[in-house]
Structures are given as C-alpha cells and as structure tokens.
Amino acid sequence: MRLTIVGPAFPLRGGIAHHVYWLKRELIVRGHAVQVVSFRRLYPAILFPGKTTTDTSQLKLDAGAEPILDPLNPVTWIRAARAIRGFNPDAALVQWWNPLFAPLSGTLIRLLKRRGIACIVECHNVLPHERSPLDRPLLRYAFSPVSRFITHSKADREELLNTFGEKDVTVASLPALGEFSSRGDKVRGGHTMLFFGIVRKYKGLDVLLRAMPKVLSEIECDLMIAGEFYDSVEKYRELISSLGLERHVRIDNRYVPNEEVPALFKRADVLVLPYLSATQSGVAGIAQANALPIIASSAGGLAEVVEEKVSGLLFPPGDSDALAERIVYFFKENLGPAFGANMRSGAGKTAGNNLADVLEGMLAPRS
C-alpha cells in the first residue's frame, strides 16, 4: 500500500502532529510506503492564541514530512497536489479538525480526485468545540467530494451521518504513543489529580476548580494543571484565589515538552477530564497507556473511553457537585489501585478498530 497523509507534522506541535508520526511509523513497520505532506504555516498569527506552533521538545517525533501547505495561500495547495501525484499513492488520508482548513482541504481533495487519487478524511473533530454559523457551509465544501471517513468516536460518526447522510464512516480507536508511557507500574494510591493539555473554555477547568472546595472539605488532595492556557490564565488564578485553593492547586502554564509527559502522568493518581463538550481525547489515550484512572464528564465520546468503575468514573458535563462527589468517592474508596490494575490487564480499554487495520482494509486490492 502507498499512502499519503496530509496534516500537521513535526516541527509543528500538538496531538495531531504526534498522531501523524505514530501512523506513519506503524504503517512503515507493516511494510507500506508513506508520504507525509504538512504545513509550512499552520495558523495565521492573528488567529493563534498560543505562544508558538513549533515543537521545541528534546524528544522529536519527526515524521519526515514535506512542509508545503499554507491555509491562506492557494498556490501551496497546487504544489501539494503535484507532490502527492508524484508519489502516486493508492489514497490520500486528509486530517480534519477545524473548518478554518475547509477551503484548503476541499480544494486539495478535488485536485487529487481529478487525477484519480482516492481521498479519505480522518476526523479528529467533525465540528469544532466553539461553533460559528460558517461551520456547516465550510464542512459541506470540504466533505461533499468524499465518500469515506474515519472518526475516533461513535458520537462523531453520528454527527457526520446526521449532517451528510449516506457516507462510509468507520470508527477507529485513537492510538496512544508508546513514547508517552512511563516505565514501571505505579499503585495510584495517592491523592494527586492531573488536568493536562491546552486550556480552553470547553475543557471545563472552571468546573473542576469549583468542585474543589467540596472535595477538600472531606479529603486532602492536590491538583496539577499542566498545559498552555489559550483562555485567560488570570481568570483561573482569580478563581483559585477566591475559592481559597492556592495550597492545593499548581499551574504549569506552558506547552509540556514530549520528554516530560511520562513523568507527569506517573506522578498523578487520577486524570480529570471535566470537558463541557468532547468528541474524543488524546489525553485519555495517554492515561490509558500509563494505566492512569480517569474521572471524566460523559460529554460526547468520553463516555466511550471510560468504562464506569473499571477504568474510571463519569459525571454529567458542567456539574461541579457531581464531579466533587465522584472525586471524593474515588479517593475515599481508594479506587486508584484497582482501576490501574484493570487498565494494565486490558480491561476498560476503548472499544474500536485499530486505525492501521482500518486503512489496510479500506485500501486492500479487491478480489
């Protein structure tokens, strides 16, 4: 099989760049030829809330990509189409996560189809977490020429089918990188919570913070917040202060380098995902790879990731009181060791097809 992956890759940072690295490596191990076409610029500076899009980690997850694309420069879309045609793949797998890239993706897909190159869209989110009236028209432009899709949750599959009707949509589990797994087993018997990843409003960090006073009235525990704030960090610091949580909450406001991720997940006893909306979660995948129990809202695809009282606990999105009750229950009943053992044994893992298997099935020669 010859496959072109179109999406962000090193030196760009973030979960999708890590995913592209994993997928190329996995497919090459299986004997396939893989080309990666990436971006020379991912976001216009005016639209990017972070400090930098560049990954400066010492642990470089380099997929050997060709950095060609610019979402605002159609000339680069044509150049990318030429580079892909030169590789002559059986198909192009286009990464999708934000309607901002619909003009680029939709045009590139049409250029490739005219040359007889099949296209598959892999959706990390069908629709963005922060919606706008332009989302669905942009989605229609990008998705209308495509018949085959991959999503990472049943919730996203339903979203796509409800929007477009007859499409071939396969659900595949979102894989986790072995590089993010810590060595050795931890019992998870302490009282340290972890909130990890980019902080945006839909992640519900304020819900977790508002749950903390009730938790602390019954049990001593601490919260580590590790990730770059795309929302106002001062707003959260003020909330922490007003709730009297300074002794129990530590903020590490930065993009955490790849090499520091395993140790961070090893220090924690439970990961908390208080998301207000969700389709899937790469962070949950890292927790599963580290046998770190999860307390998550039941928003979207998160309910597919966490098996209640096996790998973690669920609560209604946005309900701080319910979250507080779940945290207190988790610590008072000392569920960390049992849940961690379940995860190490394979219980409570996300149900779904392996992504590489799915792609091999889609592109296998017809008999």
What does this structure look like?
By secondary structure, the chain is of the alpha/beta class. The protein folds into 2 domains: 2-173 and 352-363, Rossmann fold; 178-344, Glycogen Phosphorylase B (Rossmann fold). The chain has 13 helices and 13 strands. The protein has helices spanning 15-29, 74-87, 102-114, 135-143, 154-164, 205-216, 233-242, 261-267, 282-289, 302-305, 320-332, 336-344, 355-363, and strands at residues 2-6, 33-39, 66-69, 91-96, 118-123, 148-151, 168-171, 192-196, 222-226, 249-252, 270-273, 294-297, 312-315. The protein has a 7-stranded parallel β-sheet, with helices on both faces. The chain has a 6-stranded parallel β-sheet with strand order 10-9-8-11-12-13, sandwiched between helices. Helix 2 packs parallel to helix 3 (102-114).
